[in-house]
User: What shape does this take?
Amino acid sequence: MHCQRYWFGPPTVNSVGARLAFSPVTLNTALAAVSGLVSLAFGLATLDRWLRRRRPHELAWSVAMALFFVAAMSLWWAEARGWSEPSFRVFFAFGAVINVPWLALGTVYLLAGRRAGDTTMRALLIFSGFALGAVVMAPISGAIDPGELPTGKDHFGVLPRVLAAVGSAVPAVVIFAGAAWSAWRVLRGANPALTASAVRNVSSARRLAAGNVLVAAGAAVLSASGTFAGRLGADTSFAVTLSAGISILFAGFLVASNATSPGRRLQRNE
Assistant: This one.
């Protein structure tokens, strides 16, 4: 007997008189699952560090990874079972609007210090609540095709699309520019932060610079889904860039974390 497909479970499952069909494993569902697992591991790592050290940037990253996890799981669910209005709203809110700003908040805390970070966090809480409410309550125009990734321009009005543009473009620039700035400063032997309150000891300048380069690359990949949509299709481009971007960010976090520690002044001991 030849098996043509692999399934998450049996082709059908009977439950309380209902017949639930399971979709086959596809590249998109596999990549979405990988994204969810990586973001979960990333979030648990930063949460553990925050519980032990109480550094605010690690809490910001933990929140960002929780949002990434929700977005990845909504993508996995939609690819496995078909897109619907609820899955589209969840993916749009958590994947396109409010997750990257919380990742950028960690960059603000690291480079600009506690005062600037706290001010940014208060503004971000207001933005996140408003954006989430706007996406949940916004009317959806047209029917959603279960087999195709919905887009904001086809189903949402102006406000959710503007929020997505602001919530993805501006924070991505902050992350990319902050990582590039930090890498450049470290290689020159200077404090990688912008303020004295955010200074860190650097045990390996090259390793910290490499970690920052990976963070910048991860932010660039996460914002590049539109570039690959024409070649890969919208669904696959989102799945590929989400899994690749979050994996590169996690690698950058691990590399940079092994090169720094909190301290009073910059030290280079290579």
Observations:
- Residues 25-262 form a domain with the Rhopdopsin 7-helix transmembrane proteins fold (CATH 1.20.1070).
- The beta strands are 12-15, 18-21, 200-202, 260-262.
- Residues 63 and 102 are 7 Å apart (CA to CA).
- Confidence is low (pLDDT under 50) at residues 1-22, 227-231, 263-270.
